[in-house]
Amino acid sequence: FEFDIFDSDINKKGKFLPSYKKPIKHVTDNTYKQMDLVIISAMSFFENVKKQIQQKHYFLDSQIVPFSSL
User: Fold this and answer.
1) Structure pTM?
2) Is 9 helix (H, G, I), strand (E, B) or coil?
3) What is the mean pLDDT of the chain?
């Protein structure tokens, strides 16, 4: 199982999370719009992040899930 990690903070682009081999990508990366599912881990900001994702990247409600629901 493999996945990509994206962040809207440009300063995190190219950095790594512990124990994960792939670098963080910025949400402007072309592969972001190709994702089938977006999992939001920042639960304090879930509704704000979800709204931004829907407005800027046109993901559907069913494609955006909170990390806590996994």
Assistant:
1) 0.83
2) coil
3) 94
